[in-house]
């Protein structure tokens, strides 16, 4: 039974690591695409305030 628990823990750890790596790659790719499109990193973090349409 101990062997099965170790295999399960290894499988779960591998899945979580794969998920985090995939998220990191996706985030990095999104940043690169935004830079290639001409958007500055400052605009992404500090968006301009929305103006109301009624004014």
Fold and architecture overview:
- The protein has 55 residues and is mainly alpha-helical.
- It is built from 2 helices and no strands.
- The chain has helices spanning 2-36, 41-45.
- The longest helix is centred in the middle third of the chain and has 35 residues, at 2-36.
- It is elongated, with a radius of gyration of 21 Å.
Largest sheet: number of strands, sense, barrel closure? none
Instruction: Give the class from helix and strand content and strand pairing.
Output: mainly alpha
Count every helix, treating DSSP H or I runs of 4 or more residues as helices.
2
User: What helical percentage do the residues reach?
Assistant: over 70%
**What Rg do the Cα atoms give?**
21 Å
Pick out the low-confidence regions. Answer: none
Shape: elongated
- The end-to-end span amounts to 69 Å
Strand content is under 5%
The topology string of helices and strands comes to HH
Mean pLDDT: 87
């Amino acid at each position: 039974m101990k062997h099965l628990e170790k295999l399960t823990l290894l499988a779960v750890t591998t899945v979580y690591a794969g998920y985090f790596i995939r998220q990191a790659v996706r985030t990095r790719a999104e940043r690169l695409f935004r830079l290639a499109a001409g958007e500055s990193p400052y605009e992404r973090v500090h968006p301009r305030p929305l103006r109301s349409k009624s004014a």
